[in-house]
Design a protein that fits this description.
Elements lengths: L1 H16 L6 E10 L9 E9 L2 E7 L5 E11 L2 E11 L2 E11 L5 E6 L11 E7 L1
Antiparallel strand pairs: 1-2, 1-8, 2-3, 3-4, 4-5, 5-6, 6-7, 7-8
Length: 132
């Protein structure tokens, strides 16, 4: 799995080098889960790219598996909303609706991960990524 993650990350980074100036390359870093008893993994390395509002990425998820996602990102003055689908969780392919905010003057983006309706545990979390 680590080899797959590395290959996908390398591919995303290589394709970002040839992309337009408004392309964003991001690095997934960590997640703080509100349910402290659930045992979720909170170091979630990965990479993503946003170009022409299309978003794709891969990361090591909180259930200790690899997730791949694709969607569309709406951005306005630091605020963002990404909608799409994500794989790699025990409940199958999930819809993804993630609001976020990029802190001005930094590379830091903070995202809110809402409750997954089909999961009984509290899945809400705050996620930190870095954008370049």
């Amino acid at each position: 799995m680590k080899k797959i993650l590395f290959a996908l990350a390398a591919g995303l980074l290589i394709s970002a080098q040839e992309a337009k100036a408004d392309t964003i390359v991001g690095i997934h870093a960590a997640t703080y889960h509100f349910d402290r008893e659930a045992g979720y993994k909170e170091f979630n390395p990965g990479v993503y790219i946003v170009t022409d509002s299309l978003t794709a990425g891969v990361y090591a998820n909180s259930e200790r598996k690899i997730s791949v996602y694709a969607g569309y990102s709406f951005q306005h003055q630091g605020f963002g909303l990404t909608v799409g689908g994500v794989t790699g969780y025990t409940s199958g392919v999930l819809p993804m609706i993630v609001p976020s905010y990029k802190i001005p003057g930094t590379a830091i983006r903070i995202s809110y991960l809402p409750q997954v309706p089909s999961v009984s545990q509290n899945t809400q979390a705050i996620h930190i990524s870095f954008e370049f």
